[in-house]
């Protein structure tokens, strides 16, 4: 299937408070966010014309901007409304939503408080992050040579564009080896996350996942933890050493793009796509389409139709 370039599509993009034709949503080559990574973003999904966890994503977007000292020129309510209208104009039943905020081209240099701040929201169809045919046996993961930075060296809990270059490098290196993703360690040498998703393991009927602190808080991660605990499953959030990889029975990734994706291999270690992984994936896919309701998910979701 031919890939449609992202700069050559039909539709509209919300840019700095106005809707512009998709092909006209451009920035100058001398943009601070391009040169210095001063950019934050979110990845969200529309299911059945509703943005899932929209408010939580907007809250995290603003938190990321604050960590990068970016003063967002719109309120949370304005961003929420713009997401809804952008998704509505796109007209997709299921879609991906990308709000992005970056320093502009008003000035250049490492320190550029006069650069200005730009905002955009785009919506497009993106049905699956990993090939669906791999779900039965689980994806194959490499172990990245790159480590996630710690809080002393980077704003590691921000969803910031500059922090993703090592993720891009790790994923491209993994794909060159025939894998679909890569496991990254944190700066202390403990397990952290995949290149664009959080990681979970199953052992003796309980779930184990790396504790927060050296990577971004995951909205899907928190949702799946709630789903597991609603089923009475014990979830351990803790430091996990690399030597433990061979002791786990099941493994899966979570993320807005990845949803709940089974993992079959990490380096030399193999895992089964077991009942718990399958059940949590089914629960998540039901939850996002309102076929299952958690107590904390009772407030109205953001409808786009």
Protein traits:
nine-stranded mixed sheet; 6 helices; D-amino Acid Aminotransferase, Chain A, domain 2; eight-stranded antiparallel sheet; 305 residues; 2 domains; 24% helix; D-amino Acid Aminotransferase, Chain A, domain 1; single chain; alpha+beta
- What kind of sheet is the major sheet? 9 strands, mixed
Number of helices: 6
Strand content: 25-35%
Portion in helices: 10-25%
For the record, the count of structural domains works out to 2
Number of strands: 17
**Mean pLDDT level:** 94
Q: Compute the gyration radius: what is it? A: 19 Å
What does this structure look like?
The chain folds into two domains: 12-124, Aminotransferase class 4, branched-chain amino acid transferase, N-terminal domain (D-amino Acid Aminotransferase, Chain A, domain 1), CATH 3.30.470.10; 132-288, D-amino Acid Aminotransferase, Chain A, domain 2 (Alpha-Beta Barrel). The strands form two sheets. Strands 8, 9, 10, 11, 12, 13, 14, 15 and 16 form a nine-stranded mixed sheet that branches. Strands 1, 2, 3, 4, 5, 6, 7 and 17 form an eight-stranded antiparallel sheet that branches. With 305 residues, it is of the alpha+beta class. It has six helices and 17 strands. It has helices at residues 32-36, 54-67, 76-90, 165-176, 219-230, 275-288, and strands at 12-15, 18-21, 39-41, 44-47, 50-51, 95-103, 117-124, 139-148, 181-186, 191-194, 198-203, 206-210, 235-238, 250-255, 259-266, 269-270, 302-303. The longest helix has 15 residues, at 76-90. A hairpin with a 2-residue loop joins strand 4 (44-47) and strand 5.
């Amino acid at each position: 299937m031919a890939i449609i370039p992202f700069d050559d599509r039909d539709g509209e993009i919300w840019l700095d408070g106005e809707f512009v034709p998709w092909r006209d949503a451009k920035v100058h080559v001398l943009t601070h966010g391009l040169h210095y990574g001063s950019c934050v973003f979110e990845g969200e999904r529309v299911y059945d014309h509703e943005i899932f966890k929209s408010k939580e994503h907007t809250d995290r977007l603003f938190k990321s901007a604050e960590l990068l000292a970016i003063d967002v020129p719109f309120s949370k309510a304005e961003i929420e409304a713009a997401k809804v209208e952008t998704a509505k104009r796109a007209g997709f039943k299921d879609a991906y939503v990308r709000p992005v905020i970056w320093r502009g081209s008003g000035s250049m240099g490492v320190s550029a408080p006069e650069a200005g701040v730009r905002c955009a929201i785009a919506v497009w169809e993106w049905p699956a992050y990993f090939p669906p045919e791999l779900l039965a046996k689980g994806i194959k993961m490499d172990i990245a040579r790159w480590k996630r930075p710690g809080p002393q060296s980077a704003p590691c809990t921000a969803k910031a564009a500059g922090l993703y270059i090592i993720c891009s490098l790790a994923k491209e290196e993994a794909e060159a080896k025939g894998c679909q993703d890569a496991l990254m360690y944190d700066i202390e040498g403990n397990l952290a996350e995949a290149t664009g998703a959080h990681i979970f393991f199953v052992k003796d009927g309980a779930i184990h996942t790396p504790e927060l602190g050296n990577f971004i808080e995951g909205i899907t991660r928190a949702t799946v933890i709630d789903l597991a605990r609603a089923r009475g499953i014990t979830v351990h959030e803790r430091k996990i050493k690399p030597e433990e990889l061979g002791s786990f029975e099941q493994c899966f990734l979570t993320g807005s793009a990845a949803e709940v994706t089974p993992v079959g291999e990490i380096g030399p270690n193999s895992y089964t796509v077991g009942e718990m992984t399958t059940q949590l994936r089914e629960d998540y896919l039901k939850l996002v389409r309102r076929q299952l309701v958690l107590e904390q998910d009772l407030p109205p979701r953001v409808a786009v139709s």
